[in-house]
């Protein structure tokens, strides 16, 4: 298996622009998670999906952030409009249903907002 | 408030030496504790997972311990190698019935192994 796939790996954009991050989870995994990692705050859970349905989005910082999962093999995280404080590494992770099952993380997207 | 605290924040050791990383948590109720290794520029990778009843778990040169009474865990690395240079993140899962068990992440310990 190729693991969790994220694109792009790096994104540099200007303040005010729309940014879309993409994720393909591991086949057969029915949970998908979006995280943000910064030096100051570490890893933070933004939102997670179960069977393509958003379950908990309490970690989404504000209305500028939105996430969708149109099918079992694809999810997007969108920031509109982007701000410099959104600069971070965004990780997507997926896992199976068992409580002890490990989350497998993608390589991350490093976002820089100028 | 559920928290996970790790120490030290960073650590430098020489290749071949052993080291121990610490994790203290206040998460309650507790489900399990994991140690993740995160190489620079990559996503975290799970090393070990321990439940309430487990005291020790090994994965090669990595040995994790858990004391559920004092809410402390440690990760011991034996005979360190240059490839052990990474951030090590302690993650505790709560045990909330009827809902999603949330993962609470520590800030990580950044380990540098020098030749």
Question: Characteristics of this structure?
Answer:
heterodimer; A: 114 residues; mainly beta; 7-stranded mixed β-sheet; 4-stranded antiparallel β-sheet; B: 115 residues; 6-stranded mixed β-sheet; 5-stranded antiparallel β-sheet; 11 strands
How do the helices and strands line up, and which of them pair or pack?
The complex is a heterodimer of chains A (114) and B (115).
Chain A: E1 5-7, E2 10-13, E3 19-24, E4 31-38, E5 42-50, E6 53-56, E7 65-71, E8 74-79, E9 88-95, E10 104-105, E11 109-113
Parallel strand pairs in A: 2-11
Antiparallel strand pairs in A: 1-3, 3-8, 4-5, 4-9, 5-6, 7-8, 9-10, 9-11
Chain B: E1 4-7, E2 10-14, E3 19-25, E4 30-38, E5 45-51, E6 56-59, E7 62-67, E8 72-77, E9 86-94, E10 103-105, E11 109-114
Parallel strand pairs in B: 2-11
Antiparallel strand pairs in B: 1-3, 3-8, 4-5, 4-9, 6-7, 7-8, 9-10, 9-11
Task: Provide structural commentary.
The complex is a heterodimer of chains A (about 110) and B (about 120). With about 110 residues, chain A is mainly β. Chain A has no helices and eleven strands. In chain A, the strands form two sheets. In chain A, strands 2, 4, 5, 6, 9, 10 and 11 form a seven-stranded mixed β-sheet that branches. Chain A is globular. The model of chain A has no long low-confidence stretch (mean pLDDT about 95). In chain B, strands 2, 4, 5, 9, 10 and 11 form a six-stranded mixed β-sheet that branches. The model of chain B has no long low-confidence stretch (mean pLDDT about 90). In chain B, a hairpin with a 6-residue loop joins strand 4 and strand 5. In chain B, about 30% of the residues are buried. Chains A and B meet through strand 5 of A and strand 4 and strand 5 of B.
């Amino acid at each position: 298996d190729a693991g969790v796939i994220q694109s792009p790996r790096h994104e540099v954009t200007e303040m005010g622009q729309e940014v879309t991050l993409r994720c393909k989870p591991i086949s057969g995994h029915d949970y998908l998670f979006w995280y943000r990692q910064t030096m100051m705050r570490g890893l933070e859970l933004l939102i997670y999906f179960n069977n393509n349905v958003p379950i908990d989005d309490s970690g989404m910082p504000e209305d500028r952030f939105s996430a969708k999962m149109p099918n079992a093999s694809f999810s997007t995280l969108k920031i509109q409009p982007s701000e410099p404080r959104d600069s971070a590494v965004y990780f997507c992770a997926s896992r199976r249903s068992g409580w002890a099952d490990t989350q497998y993380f993608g390589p991350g997207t490093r976002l820089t907002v100028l | 408030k559920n928290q996970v605290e790790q120490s030290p924040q960073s650590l430098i050791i020489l290749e071949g030496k052993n080291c121990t990383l610490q994790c203290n948590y206040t998460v309650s109720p507790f489900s399990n504790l994991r140690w993740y290794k995160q190489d620079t520029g990559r996503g975290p990778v799970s090393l070990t997972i321990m439940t309430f009843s487990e005291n020790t778990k090994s994965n090669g040169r990595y040995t994790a311990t858990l004391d559920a009474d004092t809410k402390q865990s440690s990760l011991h690395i034996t005979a360190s190698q240059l490839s052990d240079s990474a951030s090590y993140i302690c993650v505790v899962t709560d045990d909330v019935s009827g809902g999603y068990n949330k993962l609470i992440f520590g800030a990580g310990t950044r380990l540098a192994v020098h030749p």
